[in-house]
Design a protein that fits this description.
about 300 residues; alpha/beta; 5-stranded parallel sheet; 9 helices; about 40% helix; binds NADP nicotinamide-adenine-dinucleotide phosphate
Length: about 300
């Protein structure tokens, strides 16, 4: 069975739109996302376009901040500080990766936890660990939504997360370990010995590796749930663009057979964008001193 991201992302965006419209009716302005895009990385351009489109679908305002590829780190930080001060801006999205001469970690520190709608900041990541209210990183949040949408039980299940990045692997592991989810989580990476041993014992596998089709069907249980986060470009002469997007997971039957698997494209990526929209409305509400439930 394929666990498409389409239906859950449409639902999440529809619910977000309702919240967004209520916010506008109450505060006479739209929740607003500043979309900061530096340079001209073609993959980033696609993501930025999709995010702006999602803003329109959810009645969220977007402030487009397109910056020259050669901008200095000081200038970029200066722009972020301005957006931080801007009362009309509720969330700041800094599209990554940045051009090589800019230090992402350093620049990201200038986005406050309140406007950090990507959920990358130390404060928001820390709140995940302490199980406090914060802004949850978008891809992990989208994965949790998908698991709920498809009624996939996590309590008592063995979950293997492959990949330990700050934006996917680590926060996903933390969320699944929370009392709300009660999964038994194993976090694997390049230094894991005998990855297959862990995969074979996993009820749910989260692939966040970034290597095309590196995890094979015969490495997991026959009826495993596989959430494939990987978004890898591989050359494909049959496509106009010259490339195809493939996941980290490789399966033979188009519909996943006895597995439950998220497709790439059309899976987790859609949820990431929808989560960004929901986070923007949550951030907007909190800046006005309320929670979305109080709208
Ligand atoms: P990342 O920062 O490059 O981290 C990759 C992780 O995978 C690292 O922890 C690495 O281990 C581990 N790894 C790499 N090769 C491995 C192997 N052969 N066996 C076991 N572990 C291995 O990647 P990321 O930012 O988390 O992104 C991962 C993928 O998800 C990428 O394809 C990215 O484009 C995609 N992504 C998609 C979305 C979406 O919305 N769909 C969002 C974010 C990311 P070490 O730590 O030991 O190096």
């Amino acid at each position: 069975m394929l666990l498409s991201g389409k239906e859950p992302s449409v639902k999440m965006k529809a619910d977000t739109r309702i919240l967004s419209e209520k916010f506008e009716a109450r505060f006479s302005r739209k929740p607003t996302l500043a979309v900061v895009y530096v340079g001209n990385n073609p993959a980033s351009a696609v993501y930025v376009r999709n995010k702006k489109k999602a803003c329109e679908e959810t009645s969220i305002g977007h402030l487009d901040v397109d910056l020259d590829e050669n901008i200095s780190e000081e200038e970029l930080i200066c722009r972020i500080k301005e957006l931080e001060k801007d009362e009309k801006v509720d969330g700041i999205l800094l599209q990554l990766p940045l051009p090589k001469h800019l230090d992402e970690t350093r620049v990201l520190k200038y986005i406050s936890a309140e406007k950090d709608v990507d959920g990358f900041s130390e404060t928001n990541l820390g709140r995940l660990l302490t199980e406090e209210k914060g802004l949850v990183a978008c891809t992990p949040k989208g994965i949790m939504y998908m698991l709920d949408y498809y009624n996939i039980e996590t309590e008592g299940k063995n979950v293997v997360v492959v990949g330990r990045s700050r934006i996917v692997g680590k926060p996903v592991s933390a969320l699944l370990s929370q009392k709300k989810r009660n999964a038994t989580v194993t976090l694997c990476h390049t230094k894991t010995e005998n990855l297959e041993f862990y995969l074979k014992n996993a009820d749910i596998v989260i692939c966040a590796v970034g290597r095309p089709r590196v995890i094979k069907e015969n490495m997991v249980k026959k009826d495993a749930v596989v959430i494939d986060v990987g978004t890898n470009r591989v050359g494909d002469s049959t496509k106009k663009s010259g490339y195809a997007l493939v996941g980290d997971f490789c399966y033979s039957q188009e519909d996943g057979g006895s597995l439950k698997v998220t497709p790439v494209p059309g899976g987790v990526g859609l949820m990431t964008v929808a989560s960004l929209m929901e986070n923007t409305v949550i951030a907007a509400c909190r800046r006005m001193g309320i929670e979305t439930e109080e709208l």
